[in-house]
Structures are given as structure tokens and as C-alpha cells.
Amino acid sequence: MWSRQRGGLKPLRCGVEQLRCRRREREAALRKARREQQLVSKRLLRDEALEEAEEGCVAMIFGEAEIQQFLRLAQRGTEEKEREGALVSLRRGLQCPETQQTFIRLEGSIRTLVGLLTSNQALLQLEAARCLHELSHSEQSAVVEACLPATSYLLTYLSGHSSDFISPHLTVLEALGYALSQLLQAKEAPEKIIPSVLGSTLPQHMLQLLQPGPKLNLGVAVEFAWCLHYIICSQVNNALLITQGALSTLGLLLLDLAGAVQRTEDAGLELLACPVLRCLSNLLTEAAAEAVGGQLQLRDERVVAALFILLQFLLQKQPSLLPEGLWLLNNLTANSPSFCTSLLSLDLIEPLLHLLSVSNVVSVLVLTVLCNVAEKGPAYCQRLWPGPLLSSLLDTLAFSDTEVVGQSLELLQLLFLYQPGAAQAFLQQSGLQALQRHEEVAQLQDRVHALQQTALHG
Amino acid sequence: MQLPPALHARLAGAPGSAEPLPVERDPAAGTTPFSFAPRLVRFPREHDFFEDGDVQRHLYLQDVLTQVGGAPERPRRPSARVPEFTCQVAGCCQVFDALEDYEHHYHALHRNVCSFCKRAFPSGHLLDTHILEWHDSLFQILAERQDMYQCLVEGCTEKFRTSRDRKEHLVMRHLYPADFRFDKPRRSRGQDFAVDSRIIWRTDFSMGDFYKALSISPAVPGAAEQVLAEALGDDRAPSEGDAMEVCSEHVEPSPEPAGERRAYSHRIPSTICFGQGASRGFKSAKKRNKHQ
Predict the structure, then answer these.
(1) In this structure, is the dihedral angle defined by the CA atoms of residues A351, A357, A361 and A363, taken in order, positive or negative?
(2) How far is CA B262 from the centre of its chain?
């Protein structure tokens, strides 16, 4: 990752509590921005960055002549420091929208920049990558689009080195992935940019960079996984991605992530887990995800094992991502008797029940997954019974959240229907009292009464 | 959240899916007032469901950007300083004082080198393509009758009749720069062989230049004369004959079992070092360059 390559943390200038407070503020600001559909706004990112930048520099407006001068110096300067310095100055200027515009209109400028990105001078590559970084989070779509043609070329060059990635290449790749992710996040991306990306070899390159194995670099993978997420959730042509092997690559990556999570306390794995979970979940909803015979193309039950290992990790590290993991579990189990059977045979019901106390959203998702299993019939319900399920359900009936209770009632109906003795046991455990609380709730009352009837009269 | 111990073993085990238990639904399931039915759920980009993950992502990016945007004016060496040393590839006299720079140099210039003409390429794939197109007479014969020029972008299966057609495809379809060059003959004009190694790569720089630039460094001492001849305007197409002579002392092409193995057998095994000769040999007479 960028931060790791820079090799260090910034020195702590304030106490831990202040840091936490600051982080909470930043988080609140980001949530607000997202709700106002402004999260994509790069201004938000850059303003924060500028505030924190130690030098408090001012972005300069450069004209054509100056930009040309910088580029010339960078290409042909005699002194290394001079060449680097030229790129630094250029980058400062590129923080300013006017300079960005001038830059992209200058003939050959992007080409020169790409040439520097693919040069064999490590420090120049890094500085050029920073310039690309600046350009890629411009608010002006013309600027960002100007970078797009270079991407295919750069990826070809860089993936040609995939057997021996060295650190400047990784940095450039990461910058490229970030630049692309900004591009793909733009409002106009689904109509303008994503179709042309899908029509190029970029998706194949991206998937290649997400192949698990010794060459996988976390920072690079994170950026390209997010790229893939923006493409997929825009729903332009996901079937194409599936034919290119996206499901299988991402499935294998999930397995790899679970392995990594077991081996190390490494910070940052959740940054990759999030987009991977999203991509897989959304792809599974495509008709193309089904092979002949209605079975899922993605069938390997190790995916379920991996997912639970990740859920456990997320519970510790980033509980706010649990819904995303459970979303994937829902899409895996909804129409798949095989995966439902895996949940049972791998003894995963009890761990699943553990998540019921995390939050309302998580509880609803857990109950939904349990319903996916139970609705497949008696053979499945038999394996859900007896066990901790009943007492967990009685607990959830004590929640006040209507959705949680509602989903519990759905599950109860299925259990009463398919599992002889379930209703009886429910009664014996004071189930009727648990139901009574909700008799007056509009969204719940019909179901409550129906269950009461079934329990009492069979 | 306790996971069953066998789970980790399962993850490490063989791929496979569970034999599903028999499915047997009762029509009463999920009927009014109940409504459950298993459903695949899909979320579009702007959905609130993504809020938490998006916020985390942006917090991370903010952290990254503050570091990226930080002062680069501080003298910053990404790699460890070591006492000066020279590239060990014979004939190459680049000097380094940082391991990372050397690693970079080596990979860029010495790694994928054609054993015939000593051109270096950024990747094994491009080297293989070059060998096929430049040093394989069978290729030339076949090319007269069918489309043999393969698109350079890995994953694209298009083939073309001429390299010009291929170039056009690269420019139009894959958005390569219009002045990109992969297979221009070594038609050098003196400026390419200037004594200063930087100028070899920098003069008249354009995006395609790294292919061209990296392909003009013959790596065998003694090939200097040949290079000089070309530099003085001898526009020969890649000359297999000369190249074969030059390299045969160093590499025995292994007996070729079948068609496609040919290209690979002419790659320099990584353990053999060819001198990075002629132009460097030229240069070494003049001055040693500190690698930048």
C-alpha cells in the first residue's frame, strides 16, 4: 500500500483520544457527504489532504509554457534532483483545476507522463505516479477521461512484468488502479466510461491482478477490486465479466483472503474483503452465474468455509462490514440446496446464531439465511433441530425491532411446518408469551395470530 | 464467534460441493400472512447498504492521500544506501548506490534479452513475440500466406497480415500511442548511440521509445562493429545471420521438439550473463555513469 511503501506512520502530534475524536468527525463528514451523493467529490478528499499536508502549499496555476518546461526538464534534465523537482512542481500545479485543463490540452503531455511512468528511473516513476494521482481525482471529467487511454497501455506494460514486480512498478500500478477507480466512480461512468472499459482488455488485466498467489500485492489488489466493484454494481454488462472468469477468480481470492486472515493480524485485509464480497454478491444475481441445470457456477463449499472465517475476522476487526458478508451468504444459499447442506454439515449454524446480538441489520440477515435453509424442507429443518436455534429465536422475539421479529416469525412458520415437535417445544419454552408482546403491532399481528393458532391447535 | 475446528481444515482441503439433502417443499410455506421466499439480492451503486463500507474506503484513501501529498522535498531514498557497486552484467558499467535502483535497472535492461540481437524487452511475452517475428524464418514464410502478426496485448487474440495492420489495431482498439514502435528495425541515426547512456533513452522520447530504446543495446562484446555499421546508416533488417554467429558461442539452442518450443529455446537462460556490450563498450571507453 502507499502507506506501507512510505515506510512509516506520521509522528503522533496529539493524544489517542484526540485521534479517535478526529476520526469520528471525519467519518461523520463522509457519511453526510455520501448521503448528499457527494462522496464521489474529490474535493472532499483533496481538501482534507491539503489541510493535513505539512507544508501548507498553495496550488499554482501554470500556463502551457511552464508545463512544457517542467515536462522537458523531467525527461531530459541532467541532474536527478532537477528532474524529480520538475515533477514535484508539476504535481503542485496539477492540484489546481486550471492547470489540469491546460495540461490535458497540451499535446503529448499525457504521453510524456506515461513515458515517465514506464521509465526505468524508480524515483521519477514515483513522482510521475503522484502526478497521475492528482489528475485522476480531478473533478472535471474531461481531465479524468484524458487519462483513460493511457491505462490500457500502462497495464499491458505493467502486467508484462507480473513475474517480477518491483516496488516502483507496484506503486505505479496502485496509482493506476486508484485513478481508474476514481474514473469509474464518476456519475457519468455507467453511460460513458464503463462500456468502453468493458470493451477493452482492461477487465482481463484487472482479473489477472486479482489472481491469488505469491504475486498478489494487497495495495494493488485493493484498488482493482474497487474498480471491479464500481463496474459490477453499475450493472452494465456483468455477464461479460462472468464469461471472463470473474466468479472463479473472485472465489479463489476469497479463499486466499480467508487463509491470509488466519495467518496474520495484518492490517488492511478488510479493505480488500469489502469489494470482493460486494462483487461476488452482485455477480451471483446474474443469470449468467448459473451453469446449465440451474446450479451455480460457483459451487465449491470452501467458499462457505472461507466466508465464515472472514465473518469471524470482521466481527473483530470491522463489524460494520458484517452485513456485506451476510449478504453474500444469502446469495449463496438462497437457491442452492448444496450450500445450505454445507452450512449444516460444516456445523455453521451455531456460529451464525452468535451473530444475532450484533445489530438489527445483522440479525435480520442471519434470520434470512436461516430461512433460506429451513424453507428447503423437512430434511433441512431436521438438521436445525434441536439445538440452540429455539432459544435464539425466543431471544429475537424479545427484540423491539419489527423487521427482526418479523423475520423470526417467518422462520418459526417454516419450523412448525417441517419439524414435528417444534411447535410443542416452543410452547413448553413459553413461546406464547414471547409472541404476545407483538399482538398489537400492525406489521406483525397477522403472523403472530397464525403462529399462535398453529402452536395451540397444530 | 467460535468456529468448528474442522472448518480450517475444510478450507485447506480439496474443492468440492456438498451432496445436497433432498428438497421437499410444502405449498403452505410462505403463504399469507407469511411471505418468505428465498431471494437473490442485488444492490446498485448508490444504495445505503454500501454506506459503511464506502466510508471506510474513503477514510483509508484520505490517509493515503495525506501521505502521498506530503512533502516530497525531503531527501527521500526508498531504498537502502550501499557502497557503490557496478552492474555485474559483463560490459554494463552502470554504477549504483541503492539496491532498489539496481533491481530496477536489471529488470528493465537485462532480464528479457534476445539472444540473437541482444535487444532487451520489458517482458517475456514481448521477447517471445519478437523472437518469433524477427528470428524465425518459418514465421516469415507463413506470414506470406496467413495472418501471423499477433496483437501485443495479452488476452487479445487478433492476428494480422502485417505489422502495420497490427499497429493500427493497437492504436485504434487498445488506444496505444500513434507513434508507438515495437518492431522498427534498428535504424539508428547516431543519436541513439550517444556516449551518455541517458541520451540513448531520452532523445526524441515518445511512449513507444521504451520498446525501441530497450531494444538497441546489444549485449555481446564484439558486436560493437556490427552496431557501428548500423549506426552509420546501414538499414539492414534484423539480420539473423550475424546475430546467430554472435550468440552461438554463448548459447546452444536446444534441440527443438515441436513448433512452439522454438521461440523459448533461444532465450538466454537467466544464469548466463552476456556482456552488455557495444554501445556500452563504446561508452565505457569514455565515461562511467552513475545510475540516476
Answers:
(1) positive
(2) 20
Q: List all residues 6 or more positions away from B137 whose beta carbon is below 8 Å from its beta carbon.
A: B240
Cell numbers standing for residue A272: 480488500
Centre a 10 Å sphere on the Cβ of residue A351 and count the other Cβ atoms it contains.
19
CA distance A301 to A410: 27
- Short-list B179, B94, B171, B207, CA closest to A118: B207
Chain B contact present for A147, CB below 8 A: no
Nearest Cα of chain A lies from the Cα of B112 at a distance, in angstroms, of 10
Contact residues, chain A, for B155 at CB < 8 Å: 201, 204-205
Partner-chain contact A159 B154, CB within 8 Å: yes
Positive or negative, the CA dihedral A30, A32, A34, A37 is: negative
Tell me which DSSP letter residue B268 carries: P
A170-229 pLDDT, tens per residue?
Answer: 777 777 788 788 878 877 788 878 888 888 778 888 898 899 987 788 888 999 999 999
pTM of the predicted protein model: 0.68
Which amino acid appears at position B106 of this protein? Y
| CA atoms of A285 and B35, how far apart (whole Å) | 21
CA atoms of A62 and A66, how far apart (whole Å) = 6
Cβ atoms of B121 and B112 closer than 8 Å:
yes
Residues B36-53 have a mean pLDDT of: 93
Chain B contact set for A379 (CB, 8 A): 21-24
DSSP string across B5-35: THHHHHHHS----PPPPPP---TTTT-TT--
Q: Using omega within 30 degrees of 0 as the cis cutoff, is the peptide bond preceding B33 cis?
A: yes
Number of H helices, E strands in chain A: 27, 0
| CA proximity to A128, closest of B82, B27, B106, B207 | B207
Strand-pair category, B81-86 with B95-98: antiparallel
> What residues have CB less than 8 Å from B267, skipping those under 6 apart?
B112, B114, B115, B124, B127, B128, B131
Residue A70 in contact with partner chain B when CB distance is under 8 A: no
Rounded to 5°, the CA angle A265-A271-A276 comes to 115
Q: Give the integer Cα–Cα distance in Å for B273 and B251.
A: 11
Which tens digits make up the pLDDT trace of B228-283? 333 322 333 333 322 212 222 233 333 433 333 333 334 433 332 233 322 222 32
Give the one of A34, A108, A414 whose C-beta lies nearest to B29's C-beta. A414
Angle at the Cα of A257 from the Cα atoms of A254 and A259, rounded to 5 degrees: 115
Give the model confidence (pLDDT) of B98-142 as tens digits: 666 666 667 666 777 777 777 777 667 778 888 888 888 888 888
CB A133 within 8 A of CB B68: yes
Cα–Cα distance for residue pair A156/A173, rounded to 1 Å:
11
Residue A73 exposure: Cα atoms within 13 Å on the Cβ side: 18
Contact of A387 with A400, CB cutoff 8 Å? no
CB B169 within 8 A of CB B143: no
DSSP per-residue codes, B97-112: EEHHHHHHHHHHHTSE
Is the bond into A386 cis (omega within 30 degrees of 0)?
yes
Centroid of chain to Cα A93:
32
B17: nearest CB among A159, A200, A338: A338
Q: Which residues of A touch B50 (CB under 8 A)?
A: 233, 278
Alpha carbon of A359: minimum distance to chain B alpha carbons (Å)? 14
